Amino acid sequence: MCENRKFTLITGASSGIGYATAKAFANRGKNLIIVARREKRLDDLKLEILATHPNLKIVIMVCDLSISSNVYRLYNDLKNYCIETFINNAGFGNYSSIARQDLSKIEKMLRLNIEALTILTSLYVRDYHDMVGAQLINISSRGGYIIVPNAVTYCAAKFYVSAFTEGLAHELKASQAQLQVKVFAPAATQTEFGMIANDVSEYNYDNSFGYYHTDAQVANFLLQLYDSDQTVGTISGETFEFSLRSPVFEYAGDSLT
Predict the structure, then answer these.
(1) Which residues, listed in sequence order, are joined to residue 255 by a DSSP beta bridge?
(2) Distance between CA 87 and CA 210 in Å, rounded?
(3) Residue 208: predicted pLDDT
(4) Are 181 and 129 in contact (CB under 8 A)?
(5) What is the Cα–Cα distance from 151 to 188, expressed in whole angstroms?
(6) What are the two backbone dihedrals, phi and then psi, of residue 209, each rounded to the nearest 5 degrees?
(7) 75 alpha carbon, distance to own chain's centre
(8) Helix residue spans in 111-251 (DSSP H)
(9) Is 54 exposed, middle or buried (0-12, 13-18, 19+ CB in 10 A)?
(10) DSSP summary character for residue 147
(11) Which residue, 7, 30, 48, 61, is the most exposed by fewest CB within 10 angstroms?
(12) H/E stretch holding 110
């Protein structure tokens, strides 16, 4: 399988963690497929990478993954490429009480953070289950392991990502699959996330957090997870240090009851 040129695919690559992750994998000599809504941002990223890595192949795919039909169209467009690593990074957050949250925004968030990720993961697992060296990394959040005030719906969506990915990792291990599946749960990261989650045009991370990471730091953590045999990469709420570990949620697969 995959005798052609191999690629690392990153959704949500037009800014923040996705943008920094694309550059980090390019520094590893990886050919890239970068996916996002904003074509100009993707063009800028491609030019930036090729300026220092001119021999890499960079494929741009413009796609709004919050529209369900686009998710299937994107995957169909990938059929001619060998995707060695698939990183489901696209997503956004929301800060609001449940009673006052904008439901149109919430619907879009759930379609992107849950539905699109689930569909792309499922399709990738079907096709790459037995490919040696293949990896799928789903981006969750520290909010996918702890409930944050005024971000309950966002956290619930990320709890889904964490539980879904950990469960899939157990499932693949039981079936002796070659494909590795991992979940990455960063904490506060200085990106556009704060502006979008709060519906503001400016957001000061220094005023909102005692500590946060840059997108480049988070991309480095993701690479550490990629290089490891562990399933989960997460941030400590006390020390804000990154660590690798086995799945967090209790798994009933080995239970006798």
Answers:
(1) none
(2) 29
(3) 67
(4) no
(5) 13
(6) -135, 140
(7) 16
(8) 117-128, 152-174, 193-198, 205-208, 215-227
(9) exposed
(10) P
(11) 48
(12) helix 103-110
Q: Is 86 within 8 Å of 61 (Cβ atoms)?
A: no
**Is 10 part of a structural domain of the chain?**
yes
Rg, the chain, Cα only: 18
Q: What residue type is assigned to position 23 of the chain?
A: K
Instruction: Determine the 3-state secondary structure of 174 from DSSP.
Output: helix
Element (H, E) at 18: helix 16-26
Instruction: Examine residue 236 and state whether it is found in any structural domain, yes or no.
Output: yes
Considering the chain, what percentage of its residues have pLDDT values greater than 90?
Answer: 82
DSSP single-letter state for residue 10: E
The pTM for the full model equals 0.93
Q: What is the pLDDT of residues 64-120, one digit of tens each?
A: 999 999 999 999 999 999 999 999 999 999 999 999 999 999 999 999 999 999 999
Whether 197 shows a pLDDT value over 80: the answer reads no
State residue 127 phi and psi, 5-degree precision: -85, -30
Query: Is residue 82 a contact partner of residue 7, using CB atoms and an 8 Å limit?
Result: yes
The two tokens of residue 240 are: 């804000």
CA 117 – CA 97 distance, rounded (Å): 25
Residues recorded for the chain: 257
The answer to whether residue 1 sits within a structural domain is no
Number of domains making up the chain: 1
Phi-psi region of 29 (alpha: psi -120 to 50; beta: other; left: phi over 0): left
| CATH number of the domain residue 217 falls in | 3.40.50.720
